[in-house]
Amino acid sequence: MATQSREFPPEIIKILKSSQRVAVLTGAGISAESGVPTFREAQTGLWSSFDPAELATPQAFHQNPKLVWEWYTWRRELISRAQPNPGHYALVEMETIFPEFTLITQNVDGLHRLAGSQATIELHGDISRTRCSFENQIISDWPETDEIPPHCPHCGELLRPDVVWFGESLPAEPLEAAFQAASSCQVFLSIGTSTLVEPAASLPFAALRNEAAIIEINPQETPLTPLASYSSHHPAGEVLPELVSKMKR
Ligand code: APR
Question: Domain 10-35+84-124+170-247 belongs to what topology?
Answer without folding.
Answer: Rossmann fold (3.40.50)
